[in-house]
Amino acid sequence: GNKVTIQGYLTASFSLAEDEGTPDHFGVSDKDVIVCSTRFSLLLFDINGLRLQTFHYCPEEIWRLWVDPVHVIVTCDAGSLDIYAWEKRSLLLRKCYRLRNRNYQQMSGLASSVILSSEEAKFGGEHLSS
């Protein structure tokens, strides 16, 4: 039959400081930036382990992390979702939007209410909300 062999090799290795917490989720950008989430932080490192950026979430807990060539998406225990975008010609992220579930405690079924809170969401000095 057909046999596929995949070979990998170690390109870099580094350890996190104890105060950074235990990484729960990982992703790698197409710029070779390592993105990981701990319980209360989103951390960015270059391929050699140099910390590039930190986003703190305490008291919220990070539940999931998705990384692609354009965005990083983080979901939290309070029902919020943060969307980051990669800066052009840079290894850093900028926070674009936060979608927050106003009725997380009372939510039933598929009914939910979401607020878009972002500088980009301003229109005429007013925040857009639904």
The N- and C-terminal alpha carbons lie at a distance of 56 Å
SSE succession = EEEEEEEEEEE
Helical amount among residues, as a percent range? under 10%
Shape: globular
Low-confidence stretches: 106-130
Taking all Cα atoms into account, the compactness measure Rg is 18 Å
What percentage of the residues does DSSP assign to strands (E)?
35-45%
- Structural class per helix/strand content? mainly beta
- Tally the structural domains: 1
* Rounded average pLDDT: 79
For the largest beta sheet, what order do the strands appear in spatially? 5-6-7-8-9
The tally of beta strands, per DSSP, is 11
Q: What's the story with the biggest beta sheet?
A: 5 strands, antiparallel
* Separate helix tally: 0
Give a short summary of the structure.
With 130 residues, the protein is mainly beta. Helices cover 0% and strands 41% of the residues.
Describe this entry's structure for a reader.
This protein is mainly beta and 130 residues long. It has one domain (19-127). Helix content is 0%, strand content 41%. It has no helices and 11 strands. It has a 5-stranded antiparallel β-sheet with strand order 5-6-7-8-9, with no helix packed on it. It has a 4-stranded antiparallel β-sheet with strand order 1-2-3-4, with no helix packed on it. A hairpin with a 3-residue loop joins β2 (34-37) and β3 (41-45). The protein is globular, with a radius of gyration of 18 Å.
